[in-house]
Amino acid sequence: MKSAFRGVAVLILLAASIPGWAAAPNHPWLNSTLSPDERASLVLRAMTQEEKLALVFDYFGSLKPDVSYRPPPGARMGSAGYVPGIPRLGIPPQWITDASLGVATQRESADAYRERTALPSGLATAATWNPLLARRGGAMIAAEARASGFNVLLGPGVDLVREPRGGRDFEYAGEDPLLAGTIAAAQIQGIQSQHVIAALKHFALNDQETGRNVLSADIDPAQARESDLLAFELAVEQGEPGTVMCAYNRLNGVYSCQDRWLLQRVLEDDWGFAGYVMSDWGATHGTAVAALAGLDQESGWILDREPYFGVALRQAVAAGTVPLKRLDEMVRRILRSMFAVGLVAHPIGDDPAPIDFAADGQVSEADEAQGIVLLKNAGAILPLPRTMTRLLIIGGHADRGVISGGGSSTVFPAGGNVVPGLGPKGFPGPVVYLPSSPLAGVMGQSPMTQIRYLPGDDVDQAVRQARWADHVIVFATQWAAESQDVSLTLPDDQDALISAVSAANAHTVVVLETGGPVLMPWLGKAAAVVEAWYPGSRGGSAIARVLFGAVDPSGRLPVTFPESLAQLPHPALPGDDVPQGKPFDIDYREGAAAGYKWYQKQGLTPLFPFGYGLSYTRFRYGNLSARVANGRLVVSFEVTNVGMRAGAAVPQVYVGPKSGGWEAPRRLAGWSKVSLAPGGSAALSLTVDPRVLSMFDAARSSWRIASGTYGVWLGESSADDRLSTEVRLSAWSHSARWTAGGAHDEEASGLPSYCHVVSAAGRRAEPAWTDRSGSRAARSSMPSLRGRVTFRPEALWRTRGRPRRRLRAAPGVAKGRRRAGPPPARCRCGRRA
Ligand code: BGC
Q1: Which residue's C-alpha comes closest to atom 3 of ligand 1?
Q2: Given Cys at both, which of 99, 426, 630, 634 links 409, Cβ 3.0 to 4.6 Å?
Q3: Residue 565: how many CB atoms within 10 A of its CB?
Q4: How far is CA 694 from CA 160, 227, 710, 813, 831, in A?
Q5: Rounded to the nearest whole angstrom, what is the distance from the C-alpha of residue 481 to the centroid of ligand 1?
Q6: pTM above 0.85, yes or no
Q7: Ligand 1 centroid, distance to 23 Cα (angstroms)
């Protein structure tokens, strides 16, 4: 250890002794008309070996008093990482921070928390089924990261939710690879639009926290390609993250950060990933073994056992066990991402920039408002009537704020933690409550109602008061955090509280603030149930707006809610009975049948299926057809709002071979999200990515669609069969390198799925799933879309059917097409729409 420290000290001194920060103007790699590859190659040639070594070694960015560690002077307070820059070459430092829900602070070493805007949890964003909101959220947190002095943001995470008890499920994007990959790609695009590198993590199959440093996720490699890896593949292809973070766990026995198959064969060769691989903090286990497998940067030194890419790498290069060529390649990849994302052209200032918390809060609130899922609404008890006289609110610290998840993704909010003192003092605590009180939100929605609040710790008192009230809202919370998994049972006897209160008042609404699914033994008694996830910086307001109908609930579950533990592929949490630190294997024998696929394969009926969520209005679907056009499966249908209120439909298309042969009867093949006024309708078509219709053939390393008849189902969840049709598909096969248009093709990096509303004349207009501000933000923050999406408000107003002012009929809308409602907006979908 001692000599290791000496090696680090040399590197620190080296970085500190380089004179003159300002770059010489004649450095050819600063010419932004050259490609990132050209620029990286040019600067590489000008670098000394010590400079190269400095670039592949990231220091933990904060103090670690227990081992007397101090980061180099240039590190930012409370940050996750720091790689010194190379001033003489104009290469800035990499200032690295967590995470996907906002700018975090490494709390143990920080003398003051960095207070920033928190997005709702990743599952909430996935529940929006709205990539444009994911993109806006990514752009917002990355802008705050820049303002805070960071140019690398450690997110998003896209590990599939295979294990509903996973302590980090809340950070991820659900159990389906198409949905998760699409949402993560949009987050990456948003983050990188701010010239901040996004780190896609944790590669791969870091699907639970118990034993994460020692477990081996064992899975058939082909089935991994069709599930967890497909989520990463889509996110890499469509998001083009600057870096991918390899995970703590082993995959089929090999540590992810030294897994040549994973890092080279899959990520670099098959997917054409052009960025660099960074390790998770403490996930590097060797020098040559990791460098030769494809790890480009060791992260968070002081957390690994040795500074493997410090002095040990210098020695390995000198000895030839790591060829200089490989070191050059590692450095080239890092530089390439720095140029490609704009870290060099858009340097970070030294002083924190002001943050517009009001505007950023709106981004967070819009996300949560579309991510809230209405699970039960007996007797249409919701939306709550503003005319009610007496309302009782119980529990969840709803008088003060909303809960958030723990670990490296914790964001300390502007205004501070409103319920201090809960949870572990050290990592992954504390429990942080964000100052957005649902009680205040409810008072804003219903100012004339007499409202009482109880903390919920006294069940008898709660029952007595419940009899007084016209309506009761019970807030139930569960804290989840990195490094530990959770139970599916709500903690602190909240089930008993909900049961008793629901029995006392038939108008009881339960609002869940949980990291993921929970069991609901009281489901039959409560009148309504709302899943609000971890609601983010403005969650209280978003929840209240949904409860009172100011917003239609348009969230749909990105994860299955099981009925019981017995339904899970692994009823006992793997590794739970293994002594801490002892390696163990998880046999993912369910293979690609993660989430709803498992339930369908086993014929199980969950509590709530993937894709499920109610609205305050009703939608009718019709004219379902499936055809093959230009070699792609195209599914078309119409959706009409047949209720009395405006709302957003999330029609989902599932596909499966009639003769079986897949891991499960069907897979999600596409979806749309479309806002419709009462009577409004939209005609939509989705182009299906052929990989979603394929099996992965490991022997030939290719995707293969078997010829045959396929069922196509259209509905409002994975278990909804309301419309179906069949289509014949011919055999199709393509190498594992196949991408939808080429990984670096502008078209391919645009909106991944799946619908642009177009006018009847066929002109491209508003993406179907966004609101107006979302669309504008998307346009300005997403260079690859410029010139491809034309913002035409009249098309949007037609889909909403609620013009703000009189409009002339949009060009191309034939009068004859008008019906009782507004004319249908035409949609064309798919990347190449
Ligand atoms: C987590 C990563 C995080 C890193 C830096 C690790 O413990 O697994 O997700 O980005 O720490 O804080």
Answers
A1: 408
A2: 99
A3: 16
A4: 19, 12, 12, 38, 18
A5: 12
A6: yes
A7: 32
